Amino acid sequence: MGIRLYQTQTSMFCEKVRIVLAMKKIPYEIFDVREKRQPLVDFSGQKKFPVMDYNGKCVIDSTFISAFLEEQYPQNSIYPDSPSDKGLCLMLEDWSDEVLNQAIRTFRRAETPEAKKDAEKNLGILFKTLDQFFTGKDFLFGRMTIAEIAIFTQLHYLYTTVKYEIPASCANLLGWMDRMRQKLKLGSLTDSVPAGTSF
Length: 199
Ligand SMILES: N[C@@H](CCC(=O)N[C@@H](CS)C(=O)NCC(=O)O)C(=O)O
Fold this sequence. Notes:
The protein folds into two domains: 3-72, Glutaredoxin, CATH 3.40.30; 83-183, Glutathione S-transferase Yfyf (Class Pi), Chain A, domain 2, CATH 1.20.1050.10. With 199 residues, it is an alpha+beta fold. It has a four-stranded mixed beta sheet with strand order 2-1-3-4, with helices on both faces. The protein is 54% helix and 9% strand. The structure holds glutathione (GSH).
């Protein structure tokens, strides 16, 4: 019994959950699904990860895992205090898990120079949106919430796996990425958040 995270080190959704576990200082073990996928399928009845085994209870999807952990371990909350801010925070989490993730996936998978160029242009629009969003803000709701964690882990994947950097013209976004890097105790943006750390 205890907590087991079915994950890979490189997946952005798995990194999102590792950060929530680290913030709340929750002990857990990992199962690397790159080495073997069948135990994940046997336990959860599907192939996607992250999946959390919480004392035998199966929780699938980074958003549901994060919300579940918040219920069980309310310390160091991942949500802002006011209901309206919490609604906005959840919308931002969803935007980054779906919209930002899709743009990054399309860029990574583009097979022709034209497709790559189009995908880069689309990604550039989202960078600009985020650059405006983070202007003059250390953290969106005064402290690190699931919105920051979700946005950061998507963008961080560009550095750790895609080997692509946010352009220097997005100074506000880059400043925020660096604040997140420091908060998460990463030496560089090319390091990923290890399992078992705490902040
Ligand atoms: N919405 C899900 C997305 C999970 C997801 O897409 N995971 C990818 C890894 S990053 C995956 O499982 N890919 C393998 C597959 O689709 O078989 C979440 O937030 O956990």
